[in-house]
């Protein structure tokens, strides 16, 4: 496999640091450029970043000089990962795409764009064809791919087998979200220690909308959204990593508990045989022990890339209830973007 | 008001200690007898109890000699509060009732008995008439009254205005429950620190069933249960006190958000004018700030006896979603039982 | 007792809010003016403050209009409490004192000033005479009194009986400090959840120096500092309120454990008979149970104004080791300042 | 390297599980026998153990049948690791040693035995010669080696360079210990959440005594203990893994801060060139950033086998203060025992 030179946009932030950590020993991708705000630009990365990951800062990035996030500084990379804040992502990502530099973005800005794939490789790998509709450059060399919100990832991944087998009428979900989802400094300790905050601004609309695009069908280069309502309540709990969801689903075709569990357990990932380096062997882990999954015990399973499911049971209202959990900053952010990039390599979009 | 001599059954346990703390300065009730297991019987209370409340052990109980929980040791009390474990409550509470000693119980054993009131004074005060159907004694002097599960209390209290105004079709609820609900030693810190446990054994069936009895209509001395399904997911979170619920309700008569909020805010407690010492001035507090209620900030409001509501909003699935929260060991346990006793005094059942 | 009109400087900050909460039902002091930065000035307090106390904002302050912190806006108050940030306290407090408005300050700026009393009423009440040395105004009407750092308070209060009875050679102390000590937003949850931070900037020099002024002797209007070295290590732990100290002391006159414990237990507060409203009945509580004191159980004792001591024992190095603990934002900040004001009233400095 | 068959005594407990996890992929040691109490004996390990490690139970042990802890059931192993409770360790470990089965024990029972090495390979590797003094068997085939208490490990490892370079007069230490040190179920969450417990029964005497044996000189097969007093205060804090110590030391030969830091940083491990599989590359990590080390960030460094040091500074009392931290159940328990076994292999005691 050819090695790719990659840049990280927003390299000093929480998501940017996670990209750097995840890519430290990546077999295909090598970080050669780091971009951040003008306040950091010009400094060595080890001076510019307040490193918050628990593993040491990789030696390979320490002495890279931080660049401003403009495409002209990144002409030697093959593509960039974007961990940019949404306040600046639209402008900067557009600049890179127009300059012919593919952008694999964790920002929310382009997720709803009709030509931009919102991608979970195990759920909708075919959506990458949408890239061909993008018009950032005349020759198609610059484009944008996004990964979903950190709750939408385990929610949609767990809904996918049910959607395919039974159809979905509606979903009610309550999330218990980890503090790392708010970045750094993020949630003040005085707010969350020994507490639950029953509201996360802007989160519930993403949970309601993103699964519908992810489960939509691609037709003539456009996604026909799935069509079912999602009622979401997003809460913050004193957990470091791992968003846990309590999900209740109404199915189009009724099924008993055994059939539902069987569908979940026997579900096969469409990218299983692609041997992507970051792909979990089992994208869905189904626990039989009702005490599981738990964020502190299971968020790191399979490198933080697995969605864990438990307590699948017939519901007294609607049809089926279960618990879903995934690592919010790996599977739900930087790790998901890296897996997207790996799929794009295999499919020939990156080369 | 005449003063009552009261006994506490299960006085060394977590619920028994909470009874002792709550009653320390009660204007009507004076603790004169403490019952516990034979292991503690014969010792002074201050030696028998591993006191876990954060306020000091009241002087009035320190030098009481702990008694065995048999009715013959309690012939001088007017009634007893029971914080007994369910493994022994059936036998002991029956013994006391048959001996003519009223039992105000927090145990679950008699909650589903067709002649035993399951009581929240603000919700179903008329159910105390069921006492007249009890046959523990020929003269009606011995009887049992119970209070509900700690999740059922805020759930049912918040459903009551909706049930009366619109009728209820179905309820989906996810609880985030405090560690104090598991007693002492209860939840190991290694299990819950920085974690969520998505299962509490035996809890969900109580959440499903108790609201139906509480909202039932009394007719000819028997309760006709309310009839709607409840789907519950009970989880444990790292919070000291205060169970928080994410509730979604389908209404029989449709209503818009303003009407629903108005019904919740204008609801009046049926016991408002009884001046019960432990009754909160506002049994339901409705927050407009979407960040509230929070267990650490609001569980102690109005002496821990208030149910706090927030985030009332039109739902995309079913009809309305909201957050409810109450102190699980006060409003949801010992404090609820004390309020029951106060109502029973006012209504002449205790004298 | 005449009622006093008081102003709060820094009223929207964490310390300012604590002043407002503590003074809500104060028998002598009534808040009539609130000062904050120009960003807040002109707004109603309920709009200007992000209220973080767990009890509701007192009605009495909600509709006060926030003023800028200049003395001309406060000409109707009898004195002010200052919860100002140290970056602005020197200038503003000087302005008020020069305008003839006494300042009872929690800020650190004037603590080391040779004419400004650093005051713990139970430790050095006579130091208030230093006020007469101050020259802010010609007639002595304007002056400043300060209270110590939140670790210095329990440390010095616990050292006082030992200092008087035996003399002190040296002290080694490790503090485990609550997150509320860092204000709001203060410590990010990602830094402190399930963690210890072994460093608090600027803290250790205050712990080393302030006890020496507090235990100093007043002579001719000036304090002769006590003279012993203190080695401090200040750490942050995941506790909401209550700083806990592990203290080891070398005494000038050697004593055995019984004598030391006896001195600690029999120590009497010099202000015991003044009946100050905020004074704890027992300024030092000595626990015999080695598990105590604990911040979560005991920080609120006696309204948060008590210093709790435990584990007094002969040491294998130096002479005696013990645990001390007090509520950092009450006893160690706003509550300490209020007690200072009460003493100043009794002694005729405020009238 | 020949492969060794090893048994685990106390295999279902917290320490036993940690042994199993650590040995999962060990290049030299293969678990072939598991011993536990008679209650578990006869069951498959996956049925007998309530697995609390966050990684999955290794397949290799799941279907091993748990044995009673008597030597006759373990005749096929080359040696055993003991994670036995101290209430049974004396009897069982003696039985194994007498049967000619070497015991590498984490239990405290034999730590003070004059013929049993108390061993930290980086500190006192030569002490293994004491094995030759043991008389459990006539031919010397059965013997016992122990590893120290979980606080004694980082304390002694950090004192070692100072002891060798300057000599030590005395030590004052306050530990902030993680909850995993109390085993499972261990510390109740109601006791420790948002709290500090300033006492751990039996801990301080081990902290005081074990470093003296570890730093002692071996002469004629016996250890001459180091001779300096240690004053310890052991506290429990809400941290999962990693004991953090605040240490102040009086040196025999005075030195300035630079010399002390230089001695710490330049210290070389005596087993550095033995290439033991579990030995950390850097047994002592010295941080310059005063915020470090922190248990949540650094306890897992180098597989949990590193002792991290920070805040080395001249002290105002005694001579030098610093922070030390190590993973209590890896470096301070099972991992330390495994490293002991590796040293014993290299030195020819196990073959």
From TrEMBL, chains A, B, C, D:
Q: Does the keyword Oxidoreductase apply?
A: yes
Active site, per annotation: 150, 243
* GO MF, any single term: aspartate-semialdehyde dehydrogenase activity
SMART domains xref list: Semialdhyde_dh
**Residues annotated as domain Semialdehyde dehydrogenase NAD-binding:** 5-131
The record's keywords, sorted A to Z, are: NADP, Oxidoreductase
Please give the biological process terms from Gene Ontology that the record holds: methionine biosynthetic process; threonine biosynthetic process
InterPro entries from the entry? ASADH-related (IPR051823), Asp_semi-ald_DH_pep-lack (IPR005676), NAD(P)-bd_dom_sf (IPR036291), Semialdehyde_DH_NAD-bd (IPR000534), Semialdhyde_DH_dimer_dom (IPR012280)
Pfam families reported for this sequence: Semialdhyde_dh (PF01118), Semialdhyde_dhC (PF02774)
Q: Which family does it belong to?
A: Belongs to the aspartate-semialdehyde dehydrogenase family.
User: Under which name does UniProt file this protein?
Assistant: Aspartate-semialdehyde dehydrogenase
- Source gene? asd
